[in-house]
Protein: Strictosidine synthase conserved region domain-containing protein
Organism: Lactuca virosa
Amino acid sequence: MAKLTEISKPKASTSWGSGLLFFTVAIVAVALIVVQLDTYETVAYPLHELGETMYVPARKNSASLSGVEKIGSGQLIAPEDIIYDPKSGVAYTGCHDGWIKRVTLSDSLTESVVENWVNTGGRPLGLAVDESGDVFVADGYKGLLKVSIDDGKVELLTDEAEGVKVGLADGVVVTKSGMVYFTDATYKYNYRSALNDLLEGRPHGRLLSYDPSTKQTKVIARDLYFANGVELSPDQDFVIFCETFMRRCSRYYLEGEKKGTIDIFAKNLPGLPDNVRYDGNGHYWMALPWDNSLMFTYTQKYPFVRKIFAFTLKHLRKMPDLMKFGGVIVLDLEGKVVGGYYDETWGMTSAGVKIGESLYLGSVTKPYITRLNLTQHPLSLIS
Ligand SMILES: *[C@@H]1O[C@H](CO)[C@@H](O)[C@H](O)[C@H]1NC(C)=O
């Protein structure tokens, strides 16, 4: 046996080698043809619009790891957005099981109480509280909802604009006068199939407004690349809205000389923006669930790579893990990044809200809200 192996080895390995090569080439060729024939169409992103890289963050921020607390561990399934009502001292968060949970915050973890408040029957994402304490919900399946603070009654405000159904309501704000601005991340896909929107590369997102006095829904901005987080400026003279897949946020002016116009607030961000929240003190806190990794860059750059991923997603229900790092960046009033908290374990962070001297992080994967003591971890530039 040993002898036979020795004698036949050189010849066998050559033919094995070329056989394997042929086999591999054949498989790849067939796979490419099959993928190419797939009807799913992917298109190029307008990458020239990204411009200069704003800054490159360090990929590890070990400081953020020490002393992190977990609020509502096990009771909060993927708490996506967090909103704080300073009048009642209560925070709300929307979970994957449809529950909007009420969280009474306390310095002591054991005294931080999590309660079931209202179940929308959908997927509550972005949240906003108005002057009276009513909660507005961008529900990923249902559209724009309003929950009454008095009796917890859920009302559907709107789920379409210009005859086009809202596919994935994502972020929401409400002004002092009661106007609601919210995003439809993509009218083509829904919450479950949102990844296909990234892979396709077409702008199906919209910024919408809802006027409670006329009950009218208007399209403010269209052709957005996954319209996600929204926030009002401190004077409520503009609304910031983020396009996740283009790593940028724009502003729509509500007042002043530029009223009715749109310009860029921050672009070429170091990751993909999700919810953004003003802290009442000169800074916007913007969640970046995904890092701008090399893997993501290539995926975005090459439509054919996205076509392969779309194919594997459709047939194997799997996609490679494109990004791990995530966290929160902090922008000043002009949209300049002044720092952040960023970590390998904070991928899929969907909200960063500063309440008092603590940072509260929402996530679409974790079963709790993460709290970081900002007195112990003062803000600094990550780079
Ligand atoms: C944060 O840290 C400071 C300084 O160590 C401490 O005084 C404060 O109580 C902490 N806050 C919370 C919410 O634990």
The chain is about 15% helix and 35% strand. Residues 1-12 have pLDDT under 50 and may be disordered. Residues 31 and 223 are 32 Å apart (CA to CA).
